[in-house]
TrEMBL record:
Source species: Comamonas suwonensis
The protein, known as: Multidrug transporter subunit MdtD
Keywords carried by this UniProt record: Cell membrane, Membrane, Transmembrane, Transmembrane helix, Transport
GO MF term (any one): transmembrane transporter activity
Compartments, record wording: Cell membrane
Lineage, uppermost ranks: Bacteria, Pseudomonadati, Pseudomonadota, Betaproteobacteria, Burkholderiales
An annotated GO cellular component: plasma membrane
Coiled coil regions, renumbered to chain: none
Residue span(s) of domain Major facilitator superfamily (MFS) profile: 17-464
Pfam entry (one): MFS_1
UniProt key word rRNA-binding: no
Annotated gene: mdtD
Regions that span the bilayer: 17-37, 57-76, 83-102, 108-129, 141-159, 171-192, 204-221, 227-251, 272-294, 306-324, 400-424, 436-456
Protein topology in the membrane: Multi-pass membrane protein
Length: 474
């Protein structure tokens, strides 16, 4: 049955739509932050090394990155209400499969199912809000939806540690089920039916090349951590992945309706912002995976203790987010992003100095300061990337940024896993070898983060500062 054009939504139904989209965002942010704290406990029950659990994170992030370019077309083709309900359903199904996982390969496959739902949930929800609210009210509506994005990370680490310590890691996935079922019921009841939309031809060939390139490169990086892929296969995947991405670019230059118009990249701020996001997130994207390992495996903290320590990072992030805009307005994008990239790298490297005798108060200060610099980096990078996106390019630029964010996180975690394996071969796991491997990995990802300063040096010193369209803060 095709969806029909809606009548003017009443105010209560419009507000319920915001709550509904917020529920989906809350499930995603809560799931991500709970999972990081639970990985060591999950590895123990699944009979895997805690240093090689990065595939659980990579599978979700990579699936999301791969599907984001197609979400807008799918929502236009089949209707936002139908696709949003499907997204919640798949996320809940994936959560159930994760909770029932008897092995790491099964868990990775279940995370892929979760990722399919997660890839559609926020973009489609945001699209429905954009079509329901007039332009003047859109920013207020999106600000309301962003609140769960702050509450989820605040609850996640402690709740995850508590569940692992006093119940089992399976409950970090079971908790999504009642929330998701409420979301499904509310979607059927209150989600607006979208008006008919002219659906353009989807660039299947271009999408296939882009998706294969992302998957091949990420799997190759993950294979370097010893997930069973031989070195020859890793090299072949890397070569074909790079060739596929290059082929997509040449394809986009000669077709009428590519996924991402090449004209997008004529905008200097977008080019610099996307590349800066990619390199900066190699380090900051790996940190949520590495910090729980440092606390639980390196320093022998309990899951509950580690989860409470992680709150310092969230509090630092929330505090800085309040002053990020004023800071950029005062100093400018170029200076803020170059200096902040260096400070972010230094804070990542500082975790390489943590030893078993490090005072708790000092570690809390490190986590708090790291959270602040990380938040400043995300806010400034997202803003400079999207600030010049207008008209028809606004949606494409936003989707491209979201894809790069998730891809960079996937690659950052995969690289961290490969580094842990490499350093683990140098030092035996007993006798403090695991702590040494984690510390060395922090220093290495810090050096990779410094590469972002070279990218941001390409910004103009007098780059104008003005609000950007909503781009999220993944």
């Amino acid at each position: 049955m095709s969806e029909t054009s809606p009548t003017h939504s009443s105010a209560p139904h419009k507000e319920r739509l915001l709550w509904l989209v917020a529920i989906g965002f809350f499930m995603q942010t809560l799931d991500a932050t709970i999972l990081n704290t639970a990985l060591p406990a999950m590895s123990q029950e699944l009979g895997e090394s805690p240093m090689k659990m990065q595939s659980v994170i990579v599978a979700y992030a990579l699936t999301t990155a791969m599907l984001i370019p197609a979400t807008g077309w799918v929502a236009d083709r089949f209707g936002t209400r139908r696709i949003y309900g499907l997204a919640i359903g798949l996320f809940v199904l994936g959560s159930v499969l994760c909770a029932l996982s008897p092995s790491l390969p099964f868990l990775i496959a279940a995370r892929v199912v979760q990722g399919v739902g997660g890839a559609m949930m926020l973009p489609v929800g945001r699209l429905a809000v954009l079509r329901t609210y007039p332009r003047g009210e859109f920013i207020r509506a999106m600000s309301f939806i962003a609140i769960p994005g702050q509450v989820g990370p605040l609850l996640g680490p402690t709740l995850g540690g508590w569940m692992v310590e006093y119940a089992s890691w399976h409950w970090i996935f079971w908790i999504n089920v009642p929330v998701g079922l409420i979301g499904l019921w509310a979607t059927w009841r209150w989600f607006p039916q979208s008006a008919p939309v002219v659906v353009h031809r989807f660039d299947v060939k271009g999408y296939s090349m882009l998706a294969f390139g992302m998957v091949a490169i990420s799997v190759a990086l993950d294979g370097m951590s010893g997930m069973g892929l031989g070195m020859a296969l890793v090299v072949v995947l890397m070569v074909f992945g790079l060739a596929s991405l290059a082929s997509y670019w040449m394809h986009a230059l000669r077709v009428d309706e590519p996924l991402f118009p090449p004209a997008l990249f004529k905008v200097r701020s977008l080019r610099v912002g996307l590349l800066g996001n990619l390199f900066a997130r190699f380090g900051s994207g790996a940190a949520p995976f590495l910090i729980p390992l440092l606390l639980q495996i390196g320093l022998k903290m309990s899951p509950m203790h580690a989860g409470m320590m992680m709150l310092a990072t969230v509090l630092g992030s929330m505090l800085v987010k309040r002053i990020a805009v004023r800071t950029v307005q005062h100093f400018g994008y170029k200076r803020v992003l170059q200096i902040n990239s260096v400070m972010l790298a230094l804070m990542l490297a500082s975790f390489g100095l943590v030893a078993e005798g490090t005072p708790t108060w000092l570690l809390l200060v490190q986590l708090f300061i790291f959270g602040g610099f990380n938040s400043m980096q995300f806010s400034a990078m997202n803003s400079v990337t999207l600030k010049d996106m207008e008209g028809e390019f606004a949606s494409s630029g936003n989707s491209l940024l979201s894809m790069v964010q998730m891809l960079a996180m996937s690659m950052g975690v995969a690289l961290a896993g490969a580094l842990l394996t490499g350093f683990g071969d140098m030092w035996p796991e007993d006798g403090g070898g695991r702590l040494l491997s984690i510390r060395a990995t922090f220093v290495t990802v810090a050096l990779m983060t410094l590469a972002a300063t070279l990218v941001f040096s390409q910004l103009d010193s007098d780059e104008p500062v003005r609000p950007a369209p909503d781009g999220g803060d993944a």
